[in-house]
Design a protein that fits this description.
It is built from 14 helices and 11 strands. With about 400 residues, it is an alpha/beta fold. The strands form 2 sheets. It has a 9-stranded mixed sheet, with helices on both faces. Strands 5-6 form a two-stranded antiparallel ribbon. Strand 2, helix 2 and strand 3 form a beta-alpha-beta unit. Helix 1 packs across helix 2 and helix 7 crosses helix 11.
């Protein structure tokens, strides 16, 4: 028997703004531009929005700022903040609110000017040490988050024989997809040797194993499926969504090679009634190259420990056996502090067939996995075209 929420809601509009460098604009201004673009894409206006899901790295009351700036009075509000996976996690509460008739159109949105803004990242990190203390790690002063992900990478290499070259394959594949995406921020050629030989950030991760630091805003609109059929673009249905949080600090993750995506993925797939082999395109939050390897394993695309060998020889690059991070990912496309909303946007575009040179032909089912903190929160979504219902 199908899950009662499977396919009941659909994403009807997506938009983004301020990619790369948004100098001269605030994060709220580019968020508003993205929201207007998503509404226009759906063929509705902001006046039709009566649900809001959003959060920010810098403001604990961001939903109020956003509602005020957008000029909306939402009946449903979700400002859950679990890092970069938040905008995938926002799906399930919105699905429940829409299904219950509490609201009719939910706007999920985010914006950041971390690259061009006046408040630098070091100042934000210092404030966080005071407001969001992590008792097992902050006393030792790690330059988070890179060292935390480096620990996971080093453990995976030790335990499973994953090589430095296999980690670099992830960055090279992302760059090859970015070269097909005119919106991507880094499109110059990249080799495995370039990745390994780049400036070291946290052993074994070099700067090319790490996500970009950019500005950017994104938004999408969710409605009930019955209303979605009458809007401007083909609806992309939410077939499944689940979220899992196992820890906050990397030192509290029981096994550095197993993330909560193994739980969120299983529950999302169960709701959707699919397995990993049914996915046509996969969008993973690649803050670091090790992420892609861990999530491919934890979501069931390959056995635990085989992720390095799975991505080798261009297997996740254009023309490979599994299209992964087709916009170029956080490694080469865009990464404005939190990246989760952009994997949702790219999945929707792929299922609509709007991706030009990077389009995955015949894509019907997309799997999205958001990541937050230091592998701390995982949210998996399964999206599908109308013929997957």
């Amino acid at each position: 028997m199908a899950h009662p929420l499977r396919g009941k809601t659909a994403i009807v509009g997506v938009g983004h703004a301020g990619f790369g460098d948004a100098s001269g604009f605030t994060e709220m201004e580019i968020l508003t531009q993205a929201a207007l673009a998503a509404c226009a894409d759906a063929g509705i206006s902001l006046r039709d929005i009566d649900g809001l899901a959003t959060c920010s790295v810098t403001s604990g009351m961001w939903a109020m700022n956003a509602a005020e700036s957008l000029g909306i009075r939402p009946k449903f509000i979700d400002s859950t903040m679990i890092g970069g996976s938040s905008f995938v996690e926002h799906l399930l509460p919105a699905m429940l609110a829409l299904d219950a008739g509490i609201c009719n159109a939910v706007l999920v949105c985010y914006g950041s000017t971390q690259r061009s803004g006046t408040v630098n990242r070091a100042a934000i990190a210092s404030a966080r040490r005071l407001l969001d203390a992590q008792p097992y790690e902050h006393p030792y002063g790690p330059a988070a988050p890179a060292p935390s992900y480096a620990l996971a990478a080093a453990r995976h290499m030790h335990q499973y024989g994953t090589t430095r070259e296999q980690l670099a394959e992830v960055a090279v594949a992302a760059r090859k997809w970015a070269q097909l995406n005119p919106e991507a921020q880094m499109r110059d050629p990249l080799t495995i040797e370039d990745v390994i030989g780049a400036r070291m950030v946290a052993d074994p991760l070099t700067v090319r194993d790490c996500c970009l630091v950019t500005d950017g805003a994104g938004a999408f609109v969710l409605t009930r499926a019955d209303r979605a059929r009458d809007l401007a673009k083909p609806p992309v249905h939410v077939l499944g969504n689940a979220t899992a949080v196992w820890h906050r600090q990397i030192s509290s993750l029981p096994d550095l090679t197993v993330t909560a995506a193994s739980e969120s993925g299983a529950r999302a797939f169960e709701m959707a009634g699919i397995t990993a082999k049914d996915a046509d395109v996969v969008e993973l939050y690649d803050a670091f190259t090790i992420n892609t390897i861990l999530f491919l394993e934890d979501l069931g695309f390959c056995p635990k420990g085989e992720g390095g060998r799975f991505v080798a020889d261009g297997a996740i690059a254009p023309g490979g056996r599994l299209p992964v991070n087709t916009n170029g990912g956080g490694l080469s496309c865009v990464h404005p502090g939190m990246y989760g909303i952009f994997i949702m946007i790219e999945a929707v575009r792929q299922l609509r067939g709007e991706c030009g040179e990077r389009q995955v032909n015949g894509a019907r089912i997309a799997v999205v996995n958001g990541n937050g903190g230091v592998l701390s929160s995982q949210s998996t979504a399964v999206l599908g075209t109308a013929d997957t219902l």
